[in-house]
Amino acid sequence: MNAGRPTATKVHWWWIGGALALTMFVALGASLMGAVDIAPAEIFRSVWSRIPVIGGDNPPDARTDAIVWEIRLPRIVLGLLVGSMLSVAGAAYQGVFRNPLADPYLLGAGAGAGLGATIAIVYLPEIGWGMFDPLPLAAFVGAMVGVGLAYLLGYTVRSGRTSVTLILAGVAVAAFLTAVQTFIQQRESDTLREVYGWILGSLNTAGWSEVTLVAPYVAVCGGAIFVYRRLLDVLAVGDTEAAALGVKPQSLRLLIVVFATLGTAAVVAVSGLIGFVGIIIPHTVRLLTTSSYRAIVPLSFILGGGFLVFADIIARTAQAPAEIPIGVVTALIGAPFFAVVLRKSKGIVS
Amino acid sequence: MTAVTVENVGVEIDRTSILREVSMTVDAGSWIGIIGPNGAGKSTLLRAIAADLAYEGSIRVAGDERASLDARSKARVIAYVPQRPMYPAGMTVFDFVLLGRTPYMGTLASERAEDIASVWDALSALGIADFASRDVGSLSGGETQRVSLARVVAQGTAVLVLDEATASLDVAAQHEVLELIDSMRRTRSITVISAIHDLTAAAQFCDTAALMDAGRIVALGAVSEVFTEPILRAVFEPTLRVMQIDGMTVVVSLRSKGALDGK
């Protein structure tokens, strides 16, 4: 008798399965594309030979092996990590601020990372750093400082302190940090190209060291947001009602913002400010499936990685051997795609 | 038995005193109407009792001080519907009502069979089982009120706090919703505390009434004691009339003679 009765929105297995299949297909495609033609079997052998115990012991020739293992695969894995984190952070920000325009850079993480990176590029090379590259650390610190400032400013507002106050504080902080960043960038115009290149984002620095650097952040922060996915749905009814339903909206918001920011800071530190992923992926998921964060969080995580790897294929092949900044590609293919999804949807955005 | 005790409660927002020395007791299973003009402090009192507002003095719900209860425990004893609830577009009626089960679910847990069952129970009690899968953003005023009530019924609390549950409804829909609240109250022995602007409706549905003005309770007692012309006129307007029609109290506001003479 219960069959056919409507029930709670479910995260269907075919949504997850479909998203996983799509992302794996894109990742596989990305491993096959590049300046050198490499057969799928050789890619498989390169990976298989590195799996302990059960793995094989006949890797492809050294050159092919190096291309697959040192160049293509780390770039794909980094793309998956960065795309997943930016998408899930975007979803988290949209949830806690009940704002469809929120993205991972909303509270000043982007502007702060930009300023940190600019300072590193412009001033720090003169000091001897040895093997250590100060840029990711500077970008990471910049992003955390940006969001920290926004929160401090937001909390000094005495009356009517809402999530909107915090967004406005973020806007003020971001504008200020961007102004400082632009000022430094214009004054030191010989590094202009490098700074600009970083801001538009790229995965071309990818190696296994970058992957191991960001993977723990993505795992912990993505995992934490996943844990809170149901409470993001509770926040949708507003702070007062959420409080009446047994949730502490202010502390929950802070907690989720901390995880989303930490993850965003870690990935922009190695990839630059790749835009648009955090907006279009969660919204595409929302428009195609449901507005419940129980589905949006895991699906954004899976599809965000696939989307960024796809964008990276275009970034590195469309004008090969030159690379298009990946931030340009995400907007160039993302915006029209999103426009189609938006038109075909029932128009539910918030 | 007393469900809620409010003693000497004061609330300050931005150094402005909104509530002063408010005291009242609410009997278990009864319906108290909080009446008074706009800005009298009705919503503030309700938020202090049921939501997250800080207060001085003491508010005890089923014996426990409200402020000392953690958020989840509080949400298991007292439910609240604000004046203008948010109905997020894209959320189904079922999911919205399921939010009422939040205080019973762990952070990591998902809904259990009993949560689903109590949502179904609430939906059918309010006669909205048919549109469980509709989008809450697409409902009419009367439907959204039922959905909000279903959520607090699913929350399964002994005390229900409603801030103007029927303010935006037409006369018929208003009566329908008030009757539903009354039947919930009787069949599930829920205590209802509701701010209510419509004095006639308050007179007919509530057992007791607290009349508020400028942050204080100026009259408190059975409806028959509070709904008298001298008491209501002192707070509202001097032309207000309290009448009996078919044994029921009706409050109407008449235009003053002076204004009519100008016609």
User: Total strand count of chain A, please?
Assistant: 0
Average pLDDT level of chain B: 89
Total helical segments of chain A: 14
The shape of chain B is: globular
What is the number of strand segments of chain B?
12
- Structural class by secondary-structure content of chain B: alpha/beta
Report the major sheet of chain B.
6 strands, mixed
User: Largest chain interface and its two residue counts?
Assistant: A-B, 33 and 45 residues
- Report the end-to-end length of chain A measured between terminal Cα atoms: 34 Å
Instruction: Work out the radius of gyration of chain A.
Output: 21 Å
Q: What fraction of residues of chain A sit in β-strands?
A: under 5%
> How many domains is the backbone of chain A divided into?
1
The CATH topology of chain A is: ABC transporter involved in vitamin B12 uptake, BtuC
Average residue pLDDT of chain A? 86
What would you note in describing this structure?
The complex is a heterodimer of chains A (350) and B (263). Chain A has 350 residues and is an all-alpha fold. Chain A has one domain (13-344): ABC transporter involved in vitamin B12 uptake, BtuC, CATH 1.10.3470.10. Chain A contains 14 helices and no strands. Chain A has helices at residues 13-32, 40-48, 62-97, 109-123, 134-156, 163-187, 192-200, 208-227, 229-235, 239-244, 249-271, 277-288, 293-317, 326-344. The radius of gyration of chain A is 21 Å and the shape is globular. With 263 residues, chain B is α/β, with parallel strands linked by helices. Chain B is 34% helix and 29% strand. Chain B contains ten helices and twelve strands. Chain B has helices at 42-50, 71-77, 93-98, 113-125, 141-155, 171-187, 199-205, 223-226, 229-235, 257-261; strands spanning 2-13, 16-27, 31-35, 56-61, 64-65, 78-81, 159-163, 191-195, 208-213, 216-222, 240-245, 248-253. In chain B, the strands form three sheets. A six-stranded mixed beta sheet of chain B has the order 6-7-8-3-9-10, with helices on both faces. In chain B, strands 2-1-4-5 form a four-stranded antiparallel beta sheet, with helices on one face. Chain B has a two-stranded antiparallel ribbon with strand order 11-12. In chain B, helix 4 (113-125) crosses helix 5 (141-155) and helix 5 runs parallel beside helix 6. Chain A binds chain B through residues 5-9, 98, 158-159, 227-228, 230-231, 233-234, 236-241, 243-248, 286, 290-292, 348-350, and chain B through 13-14, 47, 50-52, 71-76, 78-80, 82, 85-92, 94-96, 98-100, 102-103, 105, 107-108, 110-111, 116, 119-120, 132-133, 135, 137, 155.
